[in-house]
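Q: Structure for this?
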Amino acid sequence: MQENTAPENGGTAYPSSSRTVPTRARERASYDRELVHGILDAAYVCHLGFVRDGAPVVLPTLYARVGERLYLHGSTGSRPLRMAGGTSAAEGSDPGLAVCVTVTHVDGLVLARSAFHHSMNYRSVVVHGTAHRVTAPEERRTALDAIVDQVTPGRSRDSRPANDRELAATAVISLDLHEVSAKVRTGGPNDDPEDLALPYWAGVVPLTPGYGAPVPADDLDPAVPLPGYLSARRERGGR
Amino acid sequence: MQENTAPENGGTAYPSSSRTVPTRARERASYDRELVHGILDAAYVCHLGFVRDGAPVVLPTLYARVGERLYLHGSTGSRPLRMAGGTSAAEGSDPGLAVCVTVTHVDGLVLARSAFHHSMNYRSVVVHGTAHRVTAPEERRTALDAIVDQVTPGRSRDSRPANDRELAATAVISLDLHEVSAKVRTGGPNDDPEDLALPYWAGVVPLTPGYGAPVPADDLDPAVPLPGYLSARRERGGR
């Protein structure tokens, strides 16, 4: 049940489903695998949705993509991770947890002449599916390394690896990329023709994520240099 | 049912509930009204969670806060807005839609000596409740203006107001701020004492959202100047 399920045919698009075809703005929807991966790989936090007592819950959560699988992590005491079940004793009967994981980049403010046509430029991915608790030690370590590397690429090799106690204290859930869609809006405002001559400025204000100067921990030995992957990233800007 | 429900006593904290007290990291939770408002007012997009056919759905959505109420908007054809019901014919019996609205700012990457203690600095607000369709014309207009001003403060007064046709084509739902919590992580890594001497850099990489140079629409009359509220915001940086 927890095998990696990348398509053997190397297909470049996810199949669409009733849940992933939007009811509106269908021209913005995409199932392109490379586009989806790019959006997922460029973010730090996803929004994890699940149902508790019949009501929706949405929590910001660290995650990483490994191939066609997402890993999310949290304390073993956190609600969704406990609800996903999959303790080693009962793994065979793990029903999993129905989830929706959404990743969104806000790329720009779209200012139109009309209030009605104001919008945002964005890239988002929505993944529907069933999350399962990851119990195999090797996969748990792979997932935790990937989550550290999602925060800073290469960092898992430049920090102390998790020990057994820490691995035991960290819950990991996995979600396979089966039912997946991306939605992207780019470009300028779509004003109505009769509004084009109105005296209001119209266009896009790009939002430009960047990195500030790294702030060493108060207790960092001054002899420890700033690693190259941090200074390089800052100069590069963005991710 | 849709009256503004700001507390008459001017209380400065939201009451906690079983849904808003986290099972872990309780020291990061807050019910402070001013903190919650600040987090909500500084974002452009929320993540709206609802339940459809028993499964969670999480969608990025434009929104605005007006007092103790959130407004979210979308096409009248969009799924959550249709599900929220509240057509004028049946408003009296509008059951509403159980939702969870989450707003998250990612403020920094927290790099610890140990992989285990890697984290993010963030500010998030989670709102649980029942969303209702807004049908009163005056409140709909207030909501739409607020959503435009959430994208760019003051912009609703510097664009063509929505006409009746546009108002009819836009669905607005409201969610009162009753069951609300904020969660904030700040500061450096929390490494274990025995790890402090390890030769790995540790600290925080701040994430600094900013604004790029405004890009005029292709069809913008060059005689229309860039408004002051856009140039000023860019110089100020951040929001």
